[in-house]
Amino acid sequence: MSMLLIDQMLLTIMKLRQNINLANLFLISPQDVSVMFTNWIIFMFFQLSSTPIWPHRDIIIEHMPSKCKCDFPKTMIILDGTKMKVQRPSALNSQSQLYFDYKSATTLKGVIDVDPRLSITSRSRIAGYHETNA
Fold first, then answer.
1. Backbone torsion region of residue 86, taken as left when φ is above 0, otherwise alpha when ψ lies between -120 and 50, otherwise beta
2. What are the CA-CA distances from residue 114 to residues 56, 76, 118 (Å)?
3. At what angle do helices 5-18 and 30-48 cross, to 10 degrees?
């Protein structure tokens, strides 16, 4: 298993993002993919675990637009939850996952978080009603 480090990192990122079988793509065995992926995850944990996810409150306030600072001085994050009506899927299992009794509609839901400068800080994946309320 002699791959360049950049290729190993690419493999790890692809595995995290898509969770697909990468052995054929990188011309290595599935066991090598597993070992490489595990080693990179451990390495990234130790390298990144001390990195702060959120900036300090003072930094957010310092970079906050003046209008926002005046009107909402303690606001650090804005959450927006969205429900979208979609066409009813033909598969019965999908119908039951997406049907929202309260709205009597087939619905997808998602959440997005933004900071006061309207930079996206995180987002959820779009999911059906029953997935998000399980």
1. beta
2. 15, 9, 5
3. 90
pLDDT tens per residue across span 9-64: 999 999 998 888 899 999 999 999 999 999 999 999 999 888 777 778 888 888 88
Amino acid at 88: R
The full DSSP string for 37-98 is HHHHHHHHHHHHTTS-SS--HHHHHHTS-HHHHHH-TT---EEEEEEEE-PPPSSHHHHHHH
Q: What is the dihedral of CA 63, 68, 70, 71, to 10 degrees?
A: -150
- Say if residues 117 and 95 touch (Cβ distance below 8 Å): no
Backbone phi, psi, residue 59, to 5°: -70, -40
Length of the chain equals: 134
Q: What pTM value is reported for the model?
A: 0.47
Cβ atoms of 29 and 4 closer than 8 Å: no
**Bridge partners, residue 122, by sequence:** 113
State the Cα–Cα distance between residues 78 and 71, nearest whole angstrom: 14
